[in-house]
Amino acid sequence: DQQVKQNSPSLSVQEGRISILNCDYTNSMFDYFLWYKKYPAEGPTFLISISSIKDKNEDGRFTVFLNKSAKHLSLHIVPSQPGDSAVYFCAASEDPGFGNEKLTFGTGTRLTIIP
Amino acid sequence: GAVVSQHPSWVICKSGTSVKIECRSLDFQATTMFWYRQFPKQSLMLMATSNEGSKATYEQGVEKDKFLINHASLTLSTLTVTSAHPEDSSFYICSARYPGEGAFFGQGTRLTVV
Fold it and tell me: Given an 8 Å threshold on Cβ–Cβ distance, is B95 in contact with A103?
């Protein structure tokens, strides 16, 4: 049972344009969402997160949007740069606070930025 | 950001032997660490939650006698794959949650059992 889904396994975007990565979830108990970037044979790198009490969080070129009623979140990267090429995972947790929590990951989207 | 160090980065072992993977939080204390496993082209799957000073909590379907977890201190958790088989070959990643920020991951360990 895949509780967090990333339906696009891959995405190609021209350099300088906006990259939009989508993520859907089914567990209504999820309260905190995170996006990670991952290169092959490396651990995921934290990018940005959002609590369920917000609908938008922005950090530099990265913005995450949360539509709780639709159980959907998206990551916007603008402008896209060649160094953004990687696999992006969204993750969700039932714990809205800090401390102990476990993450449920999506299947990942491979983003390729075309120079 | 916080640093989580995982060692070794890769290891090759023979079937039937045991392999230990270490996960350290270098600049913060982590009462809880998590161990994940990733198969090729698949998502990261949580294997177990490692709690300092107590027994680990395993996810359904994960053999606790095969994947031994020890969280002996606030900065170190270890995963030991016992009696390794080729099907245990995978990418193992640990993480620790840094209060107020997102979870930080180690570099991962590529295990190949031959």
Answer: yes
Q: Do A107 and B43 touch (CB under 8 A)?
A: yes
Tell me: the pLDDT tens digits for B32-82? Answer: 899 999 887 778 899 999 888 888 999 999 999 999 999 888 899 999 999
Size of interface A-B (CB pairs under 8 A): 67
| Upstream peptide bond of A96 is cis (omega within 30 degrees of 0) | no
Set of chain A residues whose Cβ sits within 8 Å of the Cβ of B93? 43-44
Q: Do A43 and B6 touch (CB under 8 A)?
A: yes
CB burial of residue A59 (10 Å; 0-12, 13-18, 19+): exposed
Scan for tokens 């090429």, then name that residue.
A85
User: CB within 8 A of A35, min separation 6: which ones?
Assistant: A21, A46, A47, A48, A49, A62, A64, A75, A88, A89, A90, A91
